[in-house]
Structure formats: C-alpha cells, structure tokens
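Assemble and predict.
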Amino acid sequence: MPKGSTQKVPIQTDFDTLKARLSELAHFSSVIALLDWDKQVYMPKHGAELRAATFSYLAGLLHQRFVELDADGLLERLRHELNQNKLDADQTVVVREVVRTFDREKKLPQKFVQEMAETVARAHGFWEEAKKSGKFQIFAPHLEKIIALKKEEARLVGYKDSPYDALLDPYEPGMTAAQLEPLFADLREFLVELLKKIKKSKVRQNPKMFFGNFPLDRQRKLNELVAAKIGFNFSAGRLDESTHPFTITINPGDVRVTSRFNPRDVLYSISPTLHEAGHALYEQGLPSEHFGTPLADPVSLGIHESQSRLWENLVGLSLPFWKYFYPKLRKEFPKPFGKISLGDFYQNINVVKPSLIRIEADEVTYNLHIIIRFEIEKGLIEGAINPADLPKIWNQKYKEYLGVTVPNNGVGVLQDVHWSSGLFGYFPTYALGNLYSAQFYAAAKDATPNLEKAIEKGDFSKLLNWLRRNIHVHGRRFSAADLVREATGEKLKPEYYKKYLAEKYSKIYRLE
Amino acid sequence: MPKGSTQKVPIQTDFDTLKARLSELAHFSSVIALLDWDKQVYMPKHGAELRAATFSYLAGLLHQRFVELDADGLLERLRHELNQNKLDADQTVVVREVVRTFDREKKLPQKFVQEMAETVARAHGFWEEAKKSGKFQIFAPHLEKIIALKKEEARLVGYKDSPYDALLDPYEPGMTAAQLEPLFADLREFLVELLKKIKKSKVRQNPKMFFGNFPLDRQRKLNELVAAKIGFNFSAGRLDESTHPFTITINPGDVRVTSRFNPRDVLYSISPTLHEAGHALYEQGLPSEHFGTPLADPVSLGIHESQSRLWENLVGLSLPFWKYFYPKLRKEFPKPFGKISLGDFYQNINVVKPSLIRIEADEVTYNLHIIIRFEIEKGLIEGAINPADLPKIWNQKYKEYLGVTVPNNGVGVLQDVHWSSGLFGYFPTYALGNLYSAQFYAAAKDATPNLEKAIEKGDFSKLLNWLRRNIHVHGRRFSAADLVREATGEKLKPEYYKKYLAEKYSKIYRLE
C-alpha cells in the first residue's frame, strides 16, 4: 500500500497495528529502564563499559522502532482519520499524542541527533572537571556548543514566539515562555518578600538536634513503612538505595524507587523517599490496561513533579502527617526523638534558609533557584545572554533573589548536571510541580471532608483516591493545562502555592 | 552478492562483519541475562506478567539476529574459507563454533521450535501440580509429548549411533551415549561398592551439631569473604540471594552469583556460594577481549560444572580449606563452633547418606542420582523405556543403586524440573563435571608444589592460576575431550574421581 493511502485498511485494523507497534516500543523502554536502574543501584564497577555499549545499542533499536511506527504510512492514515474526527475518544488521545511526538522527532535529522548525543557525552567529563575545580572556562566551550545545538533544535522543531518554547515542549507540552514569565515574575516577587520577612524573624531553629545513630537496616524498614503507608504497593515495586534518588518504571507492575541514607540522620532519607514514592504513586496509578499507549503515560514532567512534591512537602512536612508518624519515629529511635516534642520537631524540619545549592533548598527558596535558571536559560536560548557572562549573571541573581554570595562556580553556575546534558527547558517543570501541587492539594481538601483529620490518623487513602481519580487515571488524556482545569475547576494559579507558603511559614516564623 | 559466493569480499572483512554481528547477539544475551537475574533476585511479584512478555519479545529478536548471522551468505563464505584452511587460528575457532551452532539451529524449523516452546511452557504447571500431589499421571501425557518432540529433534538434527547423542550435543559437544555408557557403568559399580562399605562403617556423625542462630547479614558477609578469598572479583560481580542459587554473566565485567541462606544453619550457604563462585571464576577468567565470540565462551556444561564442583567439593569440603577458614568461622560464630574441634567439623561436613533427592546428595551418592537419570532418559529417547513405566523403573533403580525406597513420585521421578523443560541430555554433564574436576585437581596438584599447603594458608591463587592458564583462558578453543588432554595430558579417566572418593572416605569412615 502506498504511503499515505487512506483506502482499504479499516480504522480499527490500523489502530490495532499501532498498538502492536507501541507495545514493541514498550518492551524496549522496559529493558532500557531496567538497564538504567541496575546501573544506578547494583551494577558492579567493571560492568560499566560494556553496559554503556549495550545501553546505546538498545537505545538505537528503540529509535529505529520509533521511526518504524509510520511504516506503510500507518501514522499518515491515522492522522487523516484523526483530522476527520473519525476516531473514538481513546483512539483520539493515542493518535494525537503519538503523532505529536513523532512529528517532533521527525524534524530532527539523524545527523543532528547524533551530534547532540556526542556533544553532551563529550561535555560531561569537562563539566565534572569544571565543577570540581570551579573553573567555568573548562566547561564554557562545550556549553557554548550545546547552546548552539539547542538553538538549532528549536529552529528545526519550529516555534511561534520564542525558541525557548520549542525546548520546553517535550517536558511540559503546551507550556510557553510567555506563560511562564508573568507566573514566575509574580512568584519571585512574593518569595523575595516572604524571605525578607522570615530573615527578620526572631524564631531560632536547630535541626542538628535530630542527629544521632540510626542503623541503616532499621532506617530502611522505617522508609518502607512510610512508603507503604501512603499507598506505595510493594508487590508492584521496590525501594532501594542510590546516590541520587529516582523513580523508574519497568512496567505497570514494577515501579521502583530509590532513596538515600545517612547513618547520622534518619530525616535525610524520609523526604527523598516520600518524593520518589509520590512519583511512583502516579506511575502505579496510571491505567495499566493501556500500558504502552499515551493513555497510560504521565502528562508532563511538571504534573509528575506535582505528585512527588505534594507527598514530600505538602503532606510530608505537615503537622497532620507527623501527628501520625512522629510517635512511630520516637518509638523506633527514642534517641534523640524521645526528648523532642512534636512541636519542636515540626518547627525544626521546616527551616527556611537561603543557600547556594538547589537540591538542598527548602520550600520557600526552592522556586527562586528555579526562577534564576529559567531566566538565564531563556536568555541563553533567545540570545539575550552571552554564555561567557554566565557566572557573573548567576552570582548577581543569587545575591539579588536569595541574598547569598557564591564563593566559587562549583557551587554556583556549575552545580547542576542539566545543561551539560542538553536539558534546557527542564528546570521550569520543577517550579510548575510546586505550583500544581498546592492547587491540587487545595482541591483535594475542598472535595474531601476531614482530609487532614484522616492523615492525622494514618489514613492516606482519601488523598490518594482523590489523586487517582482526578490525576492518575487520565494518563495523557488531557494537556497539563486542561488537567488542572478538570481537577481543580480553575486554570493554574500561583495563588495556591503562595497562600500555602504564607500561612505555613507565618505560623512557623511568627510573622505579622 | 549471491548467497554462498566466495568472491570479492576479503576474508578479514567477512570476519569483521561476523564479529560485528556476534557483538549484537552479545548485547541481546546481556539484556536477557539481566532480565533473568532480576526476575530471580529482585523483581516484585506483579512485574512478572509483563516481564515474561518482554523476555519472550527479546528472545525472539535474539533468535532473529542469530538467523541473520548468515545474511548475504556470510557464514557460507566463511565456512568455505574454513574448509580451505584459509583462516588463522583464532578465526578458525570462531567460524568453526559459530557454524556448528548455526547448522544445528537451522535444522530445526521455526514451527518445531515454537511447538517445543509451547509444549514445555504448558507442561510446567502440570509438572508442578504432579510433583506436589505425587500423581505422575497428571504430568504423564505432557512428558510423553515432550519425549516425542525430543525424538523428533534428534531426527531433525541427525546422529550416527543413538538419537540420544543429538540431544547431548548442545550441552556437551562431542560426547556420545557410547562414550558415557562404559564410563557410567564403571563408576556405578564403584560407587555402589563404596556405598556398601560406608553403610557398614561404625563411624557416627551428627551434622545437627552445627545448628544455631546465624544473623543473615553476618552470614552474607562471611560468604562474601569466602568468595572473595578464592578469587571472585567483586568489582566485576555480585553475590545476592535467590531460592535456587545460580551464576549469570551480564558481560565479562559483570558476573553475578546468588546463594541461599538459612538463619539456623550457616553451612547451608557456604557450599552453594563456593559452587556458584566456581562457575563465576570460570566466567571471570574467560578472555574478555574476545567477548561475544566462542573464544570467550565456556567449552561445555560439563567443563563448567567441573569448575563449580572443584571449588565446592574438592576444595570446599577438604581439610586444607577448613584449616584456613575454620578459625574464621569459629571467631565469627563462637556458638556453636567454639566447642567443635576442626577434626569433628571436617568429619561432620562430609556425611555420606543415600537419600531421595539429587540436589541434597553428598559427593559419593550424587553421581548415582545422575546415572539413574542417564539410564532412564537414554532409554526413553531410544525407545527402550515406555514413559508410562517411569515411576516403576525410577523406584527400582533407587532401591538397587542407592538402597532407598521412594515413598511418592513427588520426591521420586518428579523431583527435577529438567524433563518438564525439555532438558534431555543435560543430566550427564553434572556427573562429567565431577569426573573432570578430580582429574583437573590432580593435574593442578601435580604441577604445583605445595598446592594444598598454600590453601591451608589461605592462598588460593596457585590453584586459580592453574585453572586460569589451563582451562579458562582457552574459551571454546578446544573440545571438552581435547581440553582435558591439553590440561592433564590424558583423556578423561574416571579413576581420578574414584581415587579421590576412595581415599577421602576411607579415612572418614575408617574403611579397610
């Protein structure tokens, strides 16, 4: 059959063929996920070299299969049916999303993809060296090359207003710089103000009071308890340890999270565990009967992050949560917690302190780290910022927004791996996740009488059920913007997050 | 280029193409190995269903790639060069072995392979049910079908003397029923005699004296110490836990073993750990620069088993080994070992007791379990035994050779998974492994002054180096028979194993 022909093949047959091809892709993704998980969790050192070769071989096959989705003009025919509104609701979602991703990929020539891959692979070592020594110029030429390629990517993919939009799109489909700018400007102003007030507060905290001796096997059991209690299904997942905590889905019955552990500090593990379990609850809640199709895919990185941040912060750093868990923590580790009241505990797990490092930031300052990165990377991609000026601009913004002085580039502009990996347009999804999370949580509370009373009693099912019904079950049926509207009745509004922070930290820091 | 053409393409180019295709196969094998390892060690329960689908999808691709080895007539051309003696030594081995495996596979039509796969997949559940209930007839029709298919396989593959030879070949290339028969008949007679003497011995043993409380984390550390001490490289491997211990190679830098643990019995883990570490030392010792080609493949299952049995039994149940390790075991677990002398310990880890179950058998009776299976499966394949008579014949042989009465088929003819999986011709490699192991160990002792003195001092490197130089480094360069000759200067002789058993157990049981 000639490519693009729309005759003779019934829609259902074509759709079944698409599903069969997608299921092959899913097998590849599954294998690649396992290779990745194993690499980060259990692979012995000397396995690395050939593992990398196996990994890229499989990634190559995955790409090949992806291209072959359109073999015999399948996607063209289905696109035609989609445009003629001849597909049913589920088929519409699947075809719409597959075609969207496919069209983007098709615009990137193999040669470009290869050059990008080689460039970031080469850049990685230089970034590491630069970060270690603090010498930005070691990394600078590689970063310039990466930025040039990302600009080229935006040109190839196409965009309406800003080239940055083309880079945002794969992480947060539909989001644009023009939407983010006022959102983040407003948020920045609020956060800088709130931070000023907090800095003036006379409240003193001492999280070091939590330090002690916490045997790792008992920490692991406690973290498993926490994850299981909020709803993580251990029959369909695992919790292991890795340097950088992450969540990965092998298949719908096998969603794995990792956490990190410190024998001196049990709280070092709880937040990452809740964060990753939050991601995992989303993955475990996607409709598994549609596995392999966009109907069982997460909407966007921002929506994914809303699930992790909701459980990590809005729940995991709240008084109701610890009303339930603190007695358990005390019982397991009477030293030091036996002598610390719940009030003191709550007061001291919620410390706001501007710092240099994003991944160590508290709820209030975290988004400022993101906004700085957004402003800079948007400037880099639009050409308003010269890569050579990066350290200067970075340090200025850290001074201005957070009030901290960057002593060297290693803990400044070089701290994150993202740009060295070509991840531009990724950072904003972290902040969006925070904004979404507060709006979702507010909606869940509105819809669910005594939600926090239930949490105090260790019943997390009401919250999880709300998330299951309003977020997880939809897969990629809606765009992020539409999902927010469907779930909360409103478009995304930063007011929910601002209100959440203002109320919580006014109490903690006794602000007027 | 027409298939089979030998013109125009230089040998080296063709050989490089073959190596490139083999390296693709290696990536697939690597992934399949990881999927398998993970399934047995860490996969959560609900991951099983889709994991099975991913596994067969990958296995299908591996098979497809295997068939494509000959694309463009590559193998035909290389076979021609091989037959004309135009290949260098390494090329000769690679082409000879690839062509050998390829030819065998090619003789099995896709339809046959599929029917076999489906039959054993279906049979598995019935075997499990039959084993549980002891009802042979539940499994009988499936076993009959499998035997019929194995006969058909032998016919398709071809053979000279016995159809059984065609089934032995993939596990122990070059071995035949005609060679095994006198070997096993001689061994059986010797073992039955030795067993009779041991039964009459007045020596009394009590391995229950070793029972106690052994925390699992300390057991794991001890097993890691033992494996590392004999030479297992933990930078290029792992030791985990699984129901059935196994060794699996992801790639040459990543060879994984598992063991099993019992909190009441630390010795429950040591033997399996030594057994699997023995397999792993072989895998870690194969020449990694040739990975993916037969130059880095093990010779046969029998040779592989010789490495595991050598470390498990000839070393791991010997006095020199425990002269070194017993003080460490005593120090780690003073209860109960503080009160048990090394002599008593040695005496009681070497108990000979005829039993029903192969995998629990001691060194003396183990091969009788194998010989029974060999005699039966050879009879089944050659048509001399009717599958319906299996339980009767099984029970008769157990009575005759081992002197034990089989109370039900679950612990009798249904105990092993092998036949239900279509593994006919596999069992003899276990006994061959024992025979090889004693001959290798004797040669190593001959060639290495003070080998056992070194072991007493915890220096296992002399033995490992001998194995590395005489077995491991050769990959699949030699056939098993030639390797035995190369390494020991003689053909395979059961006398070494008989002598080893006779000397060891005459002392332990004070036989005349």
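The mean pLDDT of chain B is 96.
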